[in-house]
Amino acid sequence: MGPVVSDSSAVQVRLHRTMTAAGFDRASGPFSADNQPTDVRTQRERVRLAQIELLELSAQLTTPHLRRQILRIYSLLRSEPVVQSPAKPPPFRLTLREMEVLTLVATGCSNVEAAEQLTIRAETVKTYMRSIMRKMGVRNRTAAVHTARQIGLLD
Asked: HTH luxR-type domain spans which residues (predicted)?
């Protein structure tokens, strides 16, 4: 883990770079400079990378209000509607909370880190992961993430 970030101007600069790299500056977005739609897969990947960087940044913050702000922005990115081609629904259903846990695990969070992000106990994260793995028919968290990515639950 890098140095602890407490200077709000440094956080703002890094946040601006993250959002710009993800295509959320005024000049970009869902259209390129020539006003043509960008590739949806590329856009999803950029959003996913921005989400990962936001989670990493929030873990380094010591100021509670800045950490909450970063996590709020992260949740806004997660709720962005993504245009997808119609796909066959998975053979199982995950709850919203299970999807949140799985998303954090997919970004590399441990049970303790995921619990901190979701303001629940680490044992609760373990319970959610057991439920997810049972529903998916897999034996470990890596297989759960892999399966979720294969069927399009995670980008």
From this structure: 87-152
Tokens 């901190």, residue? 116
pLDDT digits (tens, 9 = 90+) for 45-82: 777 777 778 777 777 777 777 777 777 777 777 665 54
**Of the candidates 50, 78, 106, which is a domain's last residue?**
78
Task: Please give the single-letter amino acid code of residue 10.
Answer: A
Answer whether residue 110 is part of any domain: yes
Return the residue matching tokens 């990962």.
52
Domain holding 136: CATH number? 1.10.10.10
What is the reported pTM?
Answer: 0.46
Please write down the HEC assignment for all residues of 113-153. HHHHHHCCCHHHHHHHHHHHHHHHCCCCHHHHHHHHHHCCC
Note whether residue 21 is domain-resident: no
Quote the domain boundaries for residue 47: 40-78
User: What residue ranges in 15-146 does DSSP mark as E strands?
Assistant: none
